[in-house]
């Protein structure tokens, strides 16, 4: 199969779909790989590194899209990239369609086959291609929150760990999944007061055992969420419903009860955000304030640490990319029900139920496409 790797064009996105090591594996399986010049610069991978791995180098994205049967990316295709997709072409990347009707419409019109990293499942449960970026984003959320709490960044001027005689900041983490667990790990290490909220008592027990009581666990209901968020200096949201729009846990009314200069880091922004005042931002302009509360809503947080992120992502995506390339998408999806869960758009039809529900569009089961 001819595989293409374009350079990411989202603002301050430095990750790349395939590392040179991943290219070498694909070439060893008999596939050809075409990489856009400079695509790996953000992770320190030069064009010559890709050449040594067996790839060819293309001068621009137009050639990559024109020649490739499968496109491997990181972020959802931007408007200019969507125009380059063609009928029957396979796209393997993050999509996050539920809050993005325009992208969904154009992918449907393209006739491309779109497999989304974020909805591929694992035999034991979970989302294996989302997990590594959730780990990164969870840990980054505390770094970002600490910076945003500084006065020069618009925050109240609080040090997360405090000092002797001065209490530490209070960090409230919404969700005890991969994002929440990794955020808690970093937050506990700062010496802050840490509260983790989740509706799963099993998840709360896991957090309690993991941190030996250094993180307080609270069951998620309206009263508890409102009380804890109002008292927080930093709120980190990592709530997730696979493929669907994130639930709005922080209402406009609740925002008005929060401390002036407090911070919300909404890791769920890729799926529309969990605050009624959430809107996507970029690394170039990461924050805005509403009612004196600093909102950090960067939709590609792991792009800030592209070396770590790209290699972590490739560790997870490469086995699936090999299945798609070795077998073709129809057989690969038919053989692997977990990879089949990643099929979001195919031949002009929407094939992921949660996305169809979120956007009020017709849904076609993946098996109907495969048959």
Helix content: 25-40%
Overall form: globular
- Looking across the biggest beta sheet, what order are the strands in? 3-2-1-4-5-6-14-15
Beta-strand content estimate: 15-25%
| CATH class label of the largest domain | Alpha Beta
CATH topology of the largest domain: Rossmann fold
Distance separating the two termini: 22 Å
What gyration radius follows from the Cα positions, in whole Å? Answer: 21 Å
This entry's quaternary arrangement is single chain
Structural class estimated from helices and strands: alpha/beta
Outline the biggest β-sheet.
Answer: 8 strands, mixed
Secondary-structure element order, N to C: EHEHEHEHEHEHEHEHEHEHEEEHHHEEHH
Description:
By secondary structure, the protein is an alpha/beta fold. It folds into two domains: 2-119 and 306-370, 3-Layer(aba) Sandwich (Rossmann fold), CATH 3.40.50.720; 131-299, Rossmann fold (3-Layer(aba) Sandwich). The chain is built from 15 helices and 15 strands. The strands form two sheets. The chain has an eight-stranded mixed sheet, with helices on both faces. Helix 10 (252-255) links the parallel strand 10 (234-237) and strand 11. Helix 1 runs parallel beside helix 2, helix 6 packs parallel to helix 7 (178-190) and helix 11 crosses helix 12 (329-335). 53% of the residues are buried. The model has no long low-confidence stretch (mean pLDDT 96).
């Amino acid at each position: 199969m001819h595989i293409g790797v374009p350079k990411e064009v989202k603002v301050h996105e430095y990750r790349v779909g395939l590392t040179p090591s991943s290219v070498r594996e694909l070439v060893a399986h008999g596939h050809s790989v075409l990489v856009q010049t400079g695509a790996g610069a953000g992770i320190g991978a030069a064009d010559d590194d890709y050449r040594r791995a067996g790839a060819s180098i293309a001068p621009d994205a137009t050639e990559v899209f024109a020649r490739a049967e499968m496109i491997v990316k990181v972020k959802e295709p931007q408007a200019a990239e969507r125009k380059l997709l063609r009928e029957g072409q396979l796209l393997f990347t993050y999509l996050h369609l539920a809050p993005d009707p325009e992208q969904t419409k154009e992918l449907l019109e393209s006739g491309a086959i779109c497999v989304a990293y974020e909805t591929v499942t694992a035999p034991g449960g979970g989302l294996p291609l989302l997990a590594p970026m959730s780990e990164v984003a969870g840990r980054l959320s505390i770094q970002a929150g600490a910076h945003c709490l500084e006065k020069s960044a618009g925050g109240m001027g609080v040090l997360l760990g405090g000092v002797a005689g001065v209490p530490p900041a209070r960090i409230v983490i919404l969700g005890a999944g991969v994002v929440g667990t990794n955020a808690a790990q970093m937050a506990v290490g700062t010496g802050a007061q840490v509260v983790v909220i989740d509706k799963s008592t099993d998840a709360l027990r896991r957090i309690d055992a993991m941190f030996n009581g250094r993180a307080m666990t609270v069951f998620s209901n309206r009263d508890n969420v409102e009380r804890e968020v109002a008292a927080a200096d930093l709120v980190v949201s990592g709530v997730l419903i696979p493929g669907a729009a994130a639930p709005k846990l922080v209402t406009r009314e609740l925002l008005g009860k929060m401390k002036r200069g407090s911070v919300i880091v909404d890791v769920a922004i890729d799926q529309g955000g969990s605050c009624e005042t959430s809107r996507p931002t970029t690394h170039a302009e990461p924050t805005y304030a509403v009612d004196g509360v600093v909102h950090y809503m960067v939709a590609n947080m792991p792009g800030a640490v592209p070396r770590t992120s790209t290699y972590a992502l490739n560790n997870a995506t490469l086995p699936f990319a090999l299945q798609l390339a070795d077998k073709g998408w129809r057989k690969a999806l038919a053989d692997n029900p977990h990879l089949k869960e990643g099929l979001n758009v195919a031949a002009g039809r929407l094939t992921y139920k949660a996305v169809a529900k979120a956007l009020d569009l017709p849904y076609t089961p993946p098996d109907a496409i495969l048959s």
